[in-house]
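ingest -> validate -> predict -> emit
validate: passed (alphabet ok, no gaps, 136 aa)
predict: started
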Amino acid sequence: MNRFRNKGFALPTVIFFLVIVAGIVTMMAKLSANQAGSTALSIQSVRAYYAVKSGVEWAAKQVDDDATWCGSGSLNLTAGLVGFNVAVSCDALNTYVEGGKTISMYEISSVASKGAFASSPDYVYRKITVMLSTES
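emit:
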């Protein structure tokens, strides 16, 4: 009779381990989804940085080509930066003469964004402000 009293003992153990394994699988699935979302936002962040940097370089070229240009503008980017809105502004700060050369100072601000704040899950925004001096 003692031999049959242990019958069914493995069932609670198997159920316990199945619940633990199911919990681990669920947790790993959630971590994987979070990681994928985080990676996508990181990529968008890097793309926004290059979009805003493109705006600064564009404005610096405009000032270098024509010292009287210092205004604002927007860019239509292509290739990997399609969809980013880039707005650029330039302020002429100071002009002075040093050592017989005229030095002009400019402040260039560039803002890049993609998506709509609070309504787009992959919204990104970057702003860079640089000081530029030209010599003539």
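Residues 10-65 form the longest helix (56 residues).
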